[in-house]
Design a protein that fits this description.
mainly alpha, 434 Repressor (Amino-terminal Domain), single chain
Length: about 230
């Protein structure tokens, strides 16, 4: 289990690994060199805005929070290319939801949820489909742990008002809160930040379970729906 000291030490190590100075990073994320230095020394905590800016630079937020490299900058899969080619956002969203429902049905039909990790990926996708327009990763975690909002606020060290704002995704967690969520659940921190397309991330995780034949059928389905719409 990590503590916040590990986070700011990884922040400094990550910057050095990619060959940037504190001044360069500070200029990119809109803070002074002194303010950025405070982040690397843990004097101030990484805010959600800081994380958004670092993500915009292509930094691996999951690694900085957890120490575990994720495939945040992964090679694009076939389904991502197919869905990414849809320019109309409402149409894309509609097809993504249909695909998610089909993938859940197929994963259960072929009993692909054979490991705890796969079961959890499918459970998260089900939760996403059920609350498609107002999906909240914090609510998903709270319901999994069977905790009240008050209990979650206490566990994460924030006031109930702030926690409710975060659960509704009117605000996003800072790095310290993301670390707490990770220690509680093992969920990737990036899932709690809607700066990244979480729906596509869930789809990709389940997509990787299927054999080529099933993948081809889903891609054909996307083409058919696109033609109809």
């Amino acid at each position: 289990m990590s503590d916040y000291k590990d986070v700011y030490m990884r922040l400094a190590a990550y910057r050095k690994r990619i060959g940037m100075t504190q001044e360069q990073v500070a200029g990119k994320i809109g803070v002074s060199q002194e303010q950025y230095s405070y982040l690397e020394h843990g004097t101030t905590k990484l805010t959600d805005q800081n994380l958004e800016s670092l993500l915009g630079l292509g930094w691996n937020i999951d690694y900085i929070i957890t120490g575990i490299e994720s495939d945040q900058n992964h090679k694009e899969t076939e389904i991502e290319k197919a869905l990414g080619s849809i320019t109309e956002e409402e149409e894309k969203d509609f097809i993504m939801k249909l695909c998610s429902e089909i993938m859940i049905e197929k994963a259960e039909k072929y009993r692909l949820d054979s490991t705890p990790q796969v079961k959890e990926a499918i459970r998260l996708m089900k939760n996403m489909v059920r609350s498609w327009k107002d999906f909240s990763m914090c609510r998903c975690l709270r319901e999994k742990l069977a905790l009240s909002q008050i209990a979650m606020a206490e566990k994460t060290g924030v006031g109930i008002k702030k926690y409710r704002e975060i659960e509704k995704e009117r605000k996003y967690p800072d790095a310290e809160m993301l670390l707490t969520f990770y220690n509680m659940s093992g969920y990737q921190p990036i899932l709690f930040l809607n700066y990244y397309d979480r729906k596509m991330l869930f789809i990709r995780q389940v997509w990787d379970l299927f054999e080529k034949k099933e993948k081809d059928r889903i891609l054909e389905f996307i083409d058919c729906v696109k033609t109809v719409l």
